[in-house]
Amino acid sequence: MKRLIDCALKREVCDLVIKNGRIYNVFTAALEEGDLAVAEGRIVAIGKGYRGKREYDAAGRILLPAFMDSHIHIESSMLSPEAWAALAVPRGTGLVVADPHEIVNVCGIAGAEYMREAFSRLSLEGEQPLDVLLQLPSCVPATPFETSGAVIDARETEREIARPLFFGLGEMMNFPGVLAADEEVLRKLQAAHAAGKPVDGHGPDLSGEELCAYRAAGILTDHESRTAAECREKAARGMYVQIRCGSSVNNIADAKDAIDADNYRRFVLCSDDKNAADLSSRGHLDDALRRLVQAGLPAKYAIALATLNVAECYGLKDVGALAPRYFANIALVDDLEHFRVSAVFHRGILMAENGKALFSAQQRYLPAAVRSTVKMKEVTAESFRIVGHGGKFRVMQVQPHGLYTAEKLIPAPVGELCVKGSDLCKLAVVERHFGTGNIGLGLVEGYGFHGGAMGISVAHDSHNLVLLGDDDGAMARCAALLAQAGGGMAVVGEGREEVFPLDIAGLMSSAPAEEVILRTDGLQKLARSMGVKEHYEPFMTMIFLSLAVIPQLKLLDRGLFDLSKWSFVPLEEREKVDLP
Question: Could you tell me the pTM of the whole model?
């Protein structure tokens, strides 16, 4: 403390002084010209005439607090933690609240421990390049109706939430369980409250009394609002509304209309799920800031959503602003419209410059606990055969650019269903954790894919294999390729077989980011060439078709699940016949 005071009063030379910059004040939305002085990783002063052991010329650029993502699943990038950080930090990212429920659904708590250790090994001059706050996943599995690789019950939640490993409790997707006051769900919530840790939410379409009940359970945030009215209501009931800018879901256009001068402090930014290609080409929260400003939101509101609001939402001290005592987590940008990041500091150490990470991001930690996770029974073409009995088939209709699905009924034949030449595809979810042989079968309309099969070992949130196609043999071959690879992405058809292994829990690749982007882009393009429509992200949209906590009709390894009924429904609805 004495050194901070002495540096602020110029009695001692600072560790770092950033000169010739314009410093953005999140408290007043004003730009100040002057030096920003740093000692012991913290800002000590803003003023003139400071001297530093290191001096950095900002050349007129704007200094912003480093950006903070309020909710992200890093596994969805398909990158190792090291490779992900090498892409995100140069984009201005200084802190993320990360929910590792993808890898925990596969590997249990060992998956979260892997994430923490991998990030902790990244450093430059003794400092990590960003802060990663891990949430303990609250729903492993997401529902009790599917097969995941692990189960985190209330007893384990009570034990694990007390560990320093976890910052809080991850998104409570089981909102029906909250509303029903399910004892197991409430024990998990109470464990987080007793530990003094925040609880993230997931409450699509909740309103009125149901929203009040959900909030009364102590749930802090929500990232599933679809309309401006829903955003406003949740903010008015004391929640922090997370505006999502991800690869498959982006609600900026609707959510920004909910934000005004009276309520903007109740909104925060998140990416939720963002793939490697988007992270590399479009960016991370810098992308969200650009889009918000381009959509017409004043820059002062947008910046607060990515900085101070996140800090206040989670009760984080000394981050989210550029002021004395705050950590020197800084992103230099050219202007407050395009948010092009030229340099990033963390705890006063220059971590990235001109789009390049300055810390080493070589993947070097891969424990046995997250490898060889695909264990499934062999499947054949017969495994994907669908036979009708003259009733009506339930068909999933996927909302463009979103995660919601609708149900449509179509006539079922008497006999085997052939989808070739139609606008239908078969969808299958194959259990891959314990070799149970479970296979859920469904139908999807309008995806556009034809001439083979595509598949992936990422399927939210239990991460079984999800396959889509119009050829049973190709679907079986696709499953076999994924099993041989230990998980991954694959496309079979038109005389080609392409597979890219995801050797970390069947979710992520240990390959460098450049290779991941190149290989996944090649598979995306191959899927597009086989007809996947432009308003669907070929693989990322598909992997949400098994997420049974977002309405309406979803497919699990045990069959079709209707969220509105919170129960399984048959693929074929037959007319009821009164028996004599």
Answer: 0.92
